[in-house]
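Assess this today:

___
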Amino acid sequence: MALAGSAGAGGRRRARLRSTAMAVARFLVVVALTYLGLLAVTFFIGRVIPVDPVLAIVGDRAPSHVVERVREELGLNLPLYQQFVIYVGKALTGDFGISVLTSNPVMTDIRRVFPATLELATLGTLIGALLGVPLGVLAAVRRGSFLDQIVRVIGLVGYSVPIFWLGLMALLVFYARLGWVEGPGRIDVVYEYTVTPVTGILLLDTAMQGEWEAFRNVFGHLILPASLLGYFSMAYISRMTRSFMLTELGQEYVVAARAKGLSERTVIWRHALRNALVPLVTVIALSYANLLEGSVLTETVFSWPGLGLYITDSLQNADMNAVLGGTIVVGSVFIGLNLLSDLLYRVLDPRTRAR
């Protein structure tokens, strides 16, 4: 009987291992197909737009033999499927070509500008989450009250007002009139050469090097655009938090917890919010991805030297290598954050681990 029990336990372990291996295999296939789809979309966008990458490099007045030679060097004379295979191979190694605008490898430019966008989007997401989640919880708990109406109006304004207009008004009021914050840009010229770039995130670099005057200057430039992005993030997060909390507060376990005599604070913040956090993780991750990708107008208004401004300038100068390279990076961020949110979902919800 002991041998039979041991054999049964071994069989269950093997079954769990097979199930785990199949789940990991499916996960990797989904990631590969998603990334391949992203590369396919960017490749065909680069082929259908009315911009000749060869003419963008050599100019409109270049001799025909020069145009043909450059076309051959770029592989644009090959069949479309061969071009796609070459494109995928280069993209997987981080080779997005040379930027016409800067004459640098596109990946070098992206490594230079992406930390600025990362810094801006991260602070914006922190502001949005730290304010949006409590506001959404309070709005759900006091449904129909004056506070609930205020939170919903704040969210509606966040969705309705154009971000470029709000950015210009914020600069006019808080920078030009009141002088509470620094102006456009990321750091004043007087401090620019006192900081040695390490991470590319200036708040961290200035703090690690003890350059506290430069730190205050960087924070003064950062706080206004980050607050603007944080406001739009807060509008989305608060609305979704309210929706999730209303669903959880109507569940039977909440009624049972109240019947047991638990305090309202415990029921709301320890039980209902804990269950609402499971889908809310995905909401916050997607909000973060949207700020990393969608801060183009904010970076333009505030002259913020990030990825959004880089892609915009490249598009205006028909620098398609830079545009497509930036698009692939943004898409990769979306894929990565979606995968991260899925993993966190499994950690927070034991039911998904049992499947």
